[in-house]
Request: fold
Amino acid sequence: MHIAVVGSGYVGLVTGACLADFGMSVTCVDNDQRKIEMLQRGEIPIYEPGLDALVAKNCRAGRLRFTAELKEAVESSLVLFIAVGTPPKEDGSADLSYVVQVAEAIADHMNGYKVVVTKSTVPIGTGKLIEEIIRKRNGRFPFSVVSNPEFLREGSAIEDFMRPDRVVIGARDPQAIAIMKDVYAPLYLIETPFVITNVESSELIKYASNAFLATKVTFINEVAQLCEVLGADVHHVAKGMGLDRRIGPKFLHPGPGYGGSCFPKDTKALTEIARQAGCPFETVETVVRVNERVKLRMVDKIREACGGSVAGLTVAVAGLSFKPETDDMREAPSIVIVNALVEEGATVRAYDPAAMANAREVLPPQVVYCQDAYDVAAGADCYVILTEWNQFRSLDFSKLHTLLRQPRLVDLRNVYEPDRMREAGFQYWGVGRG
Reply:
């Protein structure tokens, strides 16, 4: 089967490489000629563990190729995945201009029956919009529109694609459903659950899933704040909650708030979708507001650790990306926290294993970028763990103690146990640890 994936960003590149590994003939298309040339040279423009090897393997096998020529890819493919960006507008709603452009181009180049699949996260009703665009611009050839949302976690995207919790297929046409089942045939072998529904339900599943996970994160962050006031330990509370099978333990980890390319964008988009539908989603609206407060509360914690003010002090920040195993700085809590520290007169020394190039684009120019987890501590009055990269989980405490001007550790991911840190001679601040 010949497949085209339009958009070679995070979702498109992972999707294309994994489908090629399933044995499909895949053409990844992007209008960014520089990106295409990089990919043709074997250079991967994003940081995702294992993706470079997967791309190289399937390019060598002849199953994966990259081009800027959409016409050729459309004409030679049966299934066309749309995997372009849907960035938020000022009101929080999704900007569908790239999706519309691709739908128009597909319509202009169709030469027979096509299955047009939205992989991008799109508002409910986008499938119908694509159908109208294609039918209006090209009524000569039959086609089907399918919603097939992605559920890829940055840092483990390949595993998520190859061994997903579920595959959601939203379509009305039995022929299109059968073709999509053929695309994902290898997943039947590992008994992956398939959810077959209509397009609108499929589109909403993606938004509702991310909004619910964001709600769990925000809920435990508010529990953490209550724990600090009442003297409880949020880790024990979360464990006691998570053992209830109706709740589950995942996403009950307190920290500096959620970030990244999905949760912030999708929660805001869902509230706007609900508002336009005349039924405001008050739960998610509250989640969005509280998540912003959580980030600022982390600034309060750092300020408290520094004796009430960070002015004139040096703060070491370990970890900048919104989560480990990615270089993604989109909506990362570090942006709010580092900006606040700089505005209050602190010198910020920062280190991240993967995200420093992207961090330079969004953080204040005063930030000093360092070589590693120890270089960042040199002469600092406070050491802040902001992202739980593995290399921050086994720090040499004696070396760290020597490098710091003051032995203060603010652990915003609760990587370490408070008693152990105090025994090592540190003043320790965690999140929700009583």
